[in-house]
Amino acid sequence: MLKFKIIIRYFIFISGLFFMGLGISLTSKSGLGTSPINSLPYVLSMMFPLTVGQFTFLLSILFFLVEIIVLRKDFPKEQYLQLLVGPFFGFFVDLGMSIFALVAPTNYLVKVLVLLSGCFLLALGVYLQVIANVIINPGEGVVKAVSNKFRKKFGNIKIALDSTLCIIAIIISLFTFGSIKGVREGTIICAVLVGNITKIYSAIFEYFKSRNAICINEDSKSNQSA
Predict the structure, then answer these.
(1) Transmembrane stretches, by residue range (predicted)?
(2) Cα–Cα distance for residue pair 60/190, rounded to 1 Å
């Protein structure tokens, strides 16, 4: 029974990576800028013969190495499984780019709708990884490592990381293309919305969980009465 529960948790986690990949791809296809965490891979993919997913994988490896450097002997051994996250995550990002290959909105309102759809998918992916409670995504893991090591708020470190990635992407874009690529108003919208949408998913889950518990208790009382 325990092994079955662990398998289910990993399935939920991988499903989370899948939806994250779809969400990142859809936000990129909106034409309003991609998500902060994907801004650097997106720009680099326009410069080199590697896909967005492949650069996402490389960035995951970099985050993983930073975690080890920061935590050293305190790095949890079970989190070495993060090395498996990068390939899955990168694959799902590229899969999403293929699925949404024909998505190229020209109307601004449609672009916003595509962006919001991507935010909802991305938030669902984040939420599924949280409830799976198995491996930490390297992107979140590096934030948690720095936050714990230097006793800073997780949210502040997350904002700092996202901002750093966006700034690097902007600098590279300006020097390479003479204009900003991948970072636009949609990037800011994505940064603000995803966390809040995740809270909505959590509230919905807790509601149905509590309703289910009530139904179970009522059935139990009915059986006892009978």
Answers:
(1) 7-26, 46-71, 83-103, 109-136, 157-180, 186-204
(2) 20
